[in-house]
Amino acid sequence: xxxxxxxxxxxAIRNTLKEILEFENYTVETAENGKTGIxxxxxxxxxxxxxxxxxxxxxxxxxxxxLKQPESxxxxxxxxxxxxxxxxxxxxxAIKKGAFDFIEKPIDLNRLLVTTKNALAHxxxxxxxxxxxxxxxxxxxxxxxxYRMVGDSAPIERVREIIEKVAPTEARVLITGENGTGxxxxxxxxxxxxNRAAAPLVEVNCAAIPSELIESELFGHMKGSxxxxxxxxxxxxxxxxxxxxxxxxxxxxxxxxxxxVLRALQENEITRVGSDKTIKVNVRxxxxxxxxxxxxxxxGNFREDLxxxxxxxxxxxxxxxxxxxxxxxxxxxxxxxxxxxxxWKTKQFDKKAIxxxxxxxxxxxxxxxxxxxxxxxxxAGNTITAQDVHDFA
Length: 393
Prior knowledge:
Blueprint: E1 3-7, H1 11-23, E2 27-31, H2 34-43, E3 48-52, H3 60-67, E4 79-83, H4 88-96, E5 101-104, H5 109-146, H6 154-166, E6 173-176, H7 183-192, E7 201-205, H8 214-219, H9 236-239, E8 244-248, H10 255-267, E9 269-271, E10 278-280, E11 284-289, H11 293-298, H12 304-310, E12 313-316, H13 327-342, E13 348-349, H14 351-358, H15 365-379, E14 383-384, H16 386-392
Parallel strand pairs: 1-2, 1-3, 3-4, 4-5, 6-11, 6-12, 7-8, 8-11, 13-14
Antiparallel strand pairs: 9-10
Helix pairs in contact: 2-3, 13-15, 14-16
């Protein structure tokens, strides 16, 4: 049930408004002057405040100014000003100071009820938006934690330095490295540190899309252009307009699709499947592959001209075997992350366990290490030992 505060020095007005609003099933409290009204508003958890303008011990405009200060406990509560001496200038001043509305005396019953309903709906909307904003902040923090490059070895520091230099530019980047090394993390960091960070980062796993559908996925299609095309659909290039397009595993893209990607990069425009109309796009392309594209070019599997278009800035992500000194930091990071996700008390790896992990080959790189850390956290005790590593890794 919504709670309303009425601040007015006229007892008859206070009692009349209280009676009307309580009849509409609102909880109502009253204050006889501005000073008392301010004290009640700061401690009463109200959903709406009605305040007269002409009052002793702080007039309504003073009350409004104090309640709307950022540090005020009532700063987000809608305040409606009421006055028997109203004019346009006073109403405008009240709205500028943060009042939700301005009502003249004698108060019209319908106007009172409509204003009350609108003000409470406005507060509910702001509360919902505030919750969504907080959820968004938490989500962004979670995403930022997911895409973090952990380690302080020389190879990984070199990667960080290149990302910091390249990210603010419009240069295309080709990220290479074995599976599980963190190419996706590098792509996300490039986008987050770029001038396009506020725009979308659209990801395409070229290896996961059948060759006959890759063109539709990238460039979109028109209704009826092929079986199953039941409506017009924008492709990934259009979805990434103004932002970044991440083409993961581009070495697995068909030659036909490569030709169209090359044209899109050259002309900054695309054509949907089944259409002859060109669409301008403004996209920064980041590509990644675990293949040696020079060898793929020699085998006739990859276009050399596309390779040179993509390979403006090459970034190679080192394999875990090339940066084993980062394993202790990675283990700590994954342990804290996994235990937090599961709601468990953080477990510990003893020194011998870390040494045992550093002795392993890690053909699956960072991804394999995370899986092993998760397995050990689940299966071993509170302190994970070298024997646990031997048994479960």
